[in-house]
Amino acid sequence: MHPRNQRIAIALLSLAAHANAHATAAEDEHIRQIVQGVLKEKDQKIEQLEARIKQLEQERSGAVAAAPSPAVAKAGEPAPAPVKTAANGKPEPTVDTKLQALDKKIAALKEAAEANGLQMSGFFDINAKTGNSTDQTFSVGSVELDLDYVHDDHFGASSALVLCGNSSNADYGAPGAVFCGNSGPGALSGGSTMAGIAVALVDYHMFNDRIPPRGRIFNNKGLHIQAGRFDLPFGNDYQNFANKDRITVTAPLTTSRMQLGGYNADGIRSYGAWDIFNYSVFWTDALYANDGHTVGGRVGLAMGQNTYKIHNTNPEGIEIGVSHLSEFDGENRIRNTVYGADLSIGYGMWRLQNEFMLLNAHQQVFLEQDADGNPLPVIIPDPNTSPFGKGHQLGYHSTLTVDLESLSKQPIVVFARYSRWQPSQDLGLDFDGSTVAINDLSMLSLGFNYKFSDHLRVKFEYNDSLGTETAERYFDRKLGIAQIVMSF
């Protein structure tokens, strides 16, 4: 080909290729715009579809909530397929859930108080009894509020306020155990006492600043000197004067008979615990009369895997204690002497508590007649009166408790107790001051308790005097009691 023609051909081919490239780029841009438009339209339709689905779900949920009963398909028509809807409202709370919520509220209140140095606790109990001397089935027992305040490293205060509603309609002079619904409040007598201060004291302490108003005062190592009103650590049942601390429903005869419901008085005391040794000494008002004073104390040895575990719910080890007190009249003549010994043994799920008490009266009591001819006891001898005798008493009890939680996987504790009371007199005073016949008493107590939570416990107990009895107004030979204790 001629060179000139060759150059012309090459130029024409270059122009054609350049034109084709421009056409291809334009075509690609056009296609891209079309695709973007389609995708945008698709996104809009998807959004509209999602909005419609949400609207239908809301309408469906409203229709299901408003409908009184599920729709029933007509005969011959296929049943509509179930439609999944949003989850219904929260299920009804169970008893355990409610108790857990209550525990949280109580814990929150305690934390707020403890932030200011104050610990609060308390309890109340409700009782139901079989046929009994009060002729009432249901009764509210005692209501107690305990306060423990720490001022600084060495000073604090503690109190326990007790209220008895007397819903059992017992006479106001009846023993506290009856007046408070047969639940045995301890340290609160009858005698028209609707409410009382069981504990109110100021405390100087070393090593430990917690001041429990009552109960297991030897839980922690420390030294305390106190003045005010308090329970007297005598024997081992003083730890159980409050119903929330007692495994059983009723107290043993050593407490209800010989300690008049539980030794409690105004005065001064000191107690402490180091390693295996614990002690308490006290000087208080008279316990068995309205004049005079009392001095005494207790010494104990706690031996086991943990020195202070003996006071816990499931204690292990051995604790031995010896107690003594002497009561003097207003002229400093000795009136009564009381001796006590206690032994507690814990191993695994087993717990055995034993207590022995001996009361020796040193003054002769005589009977005198009032204007109506009724006998009255007097201590001052008179030629015209007849001897009433010295009030010697002997008492003891053995209480066995077994924690079955490890076997039954339920928080159940069963118990059995035998108590004995032997007065030297054949006559005694009833709650109203009248003279009645009394005899040696035996009492067998069987039962169990179930712990729903740290704050709710239910107890059942059956008592049988094994054929022994007295002529007292509120004495029951056989009695069954169910008790609910709510603590906080």
Rg: 40 Å
Task: Using the 3D structure, state the CATH architecture.
Answer: Beta Barrel
Taking all residues together, what is the mean pLDDT? 80
Output the helix-strand order. Answer: HHEEEHEEHEEEEEEEEEEHEEEEEE
Classify the secondary structure makeup into a structural class.
Answer: alpha+beta
Number of DSSP helices? Answer: 5
Q: What's the CATH class, please? A: Mainly Beta
Count of spatially separate domains: 1
As an assembly, this protein is single chain
Distance between the termini: 116 Å
CATH fold title: Porin
Low-confidence stretches: 307-312, 383-387
Assign an overall shape.
elongated
Describe the strand arrangement of the main beta sheet, using strand numbers. 1-2-3-4-5-6-7-8-9-10-11-15-16-19-20-21
Strand content: 35-45%
Helical content band? 10-25%
CATH homologous superfamily label: Porin
Q: What characterizes the major β-sheet?
A: 16 strands, antiparallel, barrel
Q: Tell how many strands the DSSP assignment holds.
A: 21
Structure, explained:
The chain has 488 residues and is an alpha+beta fold. The protein has a single domain, classed as Porin, CATH 2.40.160. Helices cover 20% and strands 41% of the residues. The strands form 3 sheets. A 16-stranded antiparallel β-barrel has the order 1-2-3-4-5-6-7-8-9-10-11-15-16-19-20-21. The chain has a 3-stranded antiparallel sheet with strand order 13-12-14, with no helix packed on it. Strands 17-18 form a two-stranded antiparallel sheet. A hairpin with a 2-residue loop joins strand 19 (441-453) and strand 20 (456-464). It is elongated and about 160 Å long. The N and C termini lie far apart (116 Å). Residues 307-312 and 383-387 have low confidence and may be disordered.
